[in-house]
């Protein structure tokens, strides 16, 4: 049986809502207007940001952050995309949900993953992020959070997903579960993931 580590009992966990937004381009120079017609078509490039400070710094990621009191998750996603990349989203589609638990912490990050399916503007560097377009065939997974390589294929295929990842520190995934469907119960995913950990 594997070491269970310092895990928080289920009834002491609490959730914090965060957003994570991805923008794709079908080609062009990255400054094109997202026309919303790209869904279902091959995605050529994805806009990622190099996080310059704070949680997850020195990694590439989508754009996002904490949902503020009084706003919906989607409004938070639109706001954070604008603050961090200067792009204006006209339409957002939910693509998945990911729960991140960190060994020794009762706080679970509930990350709502969106695709901005229609957007305008030119991506530009902000205080928090340095944006860069990547070909979808060469996404820099070794410079991203360790979980991204698991769920990115579903994001690229626009297949709804829900995931649970248990981290030790910020580098090591102790166990994870990823399922199709955009709204799988956290409790079920966690139970499955912890059972897997026990059996390792
Ligand atoms: N394991 C993980 N894998 C991943 O791909 N993204 C993660 C992640 N853990 C957190 N994130 C994302 C969610 C969110 O978009 C961002 C962290 O947001 P935070 O609000 O903590 O940081 P910020 O410094 O952006 O805060 P604010 O802008 O003040 O809200 O990182």
From TrEMBL:
Reactions performed catalytically: 8-oxo-dGTP + H2O = 8-oxo-dGMP + diphosphate + H(+); 2-oxo-ATP + H2O = 2-oxo-AMP + diphosphate + H(+); N(6)-methyl-dATP + H2O = N(6)-methyl-dAMP + diphosphate + H(+); 8-oxo-dATP + H2O = 8-oxo-dAMP + diphosphate + H(+)
GO cellular component terms attached to this protein's record: cytoplasm
UniProt keyword terms in alphabetical order: Hydrolase, Magnesium, Metal-binding
Nudix hydrolase domain location: 14-157
Family stated for the protein in its record: Belongs to the Nudix hydrolase family.
Protein function: Oxidized purine nucleoside triphosphate hydrolase which is a prominent sanitizer of the oxidized nucleotide pool. Catalyzes the hydrolysis of 2-oxo-dATP (2-hydroxy-dATP) into 2-oxo-dAMP. Also has a significant hydrolase activity toward 2-oxo-ATP, 8-oxo-dGTP and 8-oxo-dATP. Through the hydrolysis of oxidized purine nucleoside triphosphates, prevents their incorporation into DNA and the subsequent transversions A:T to C:G and G:C to T:A. Also catalyzes the hydrolysis of methylated purine nucleoside triphosphate preventing their integration into DNA.
Assembly with partners or alone: Monomer.
PANTHER family assigned to the protein according to its UniProt record, in alphabetical order: 7,8-DIHYDRO-8-OXOGUANINE TRIPHOSPHATASE (PTHR43758), OXIDIZED PURINE NUCLEOSIDE TRIPHOSPHATE HYDROLASE (PTHR43758:SF2)
Name under which the protein is recorded: Oxidized purine nucleoside triphosphate hydrolase
Organism: Salpingoeca rosetta (strain ATCC 50818 / BSB-021)
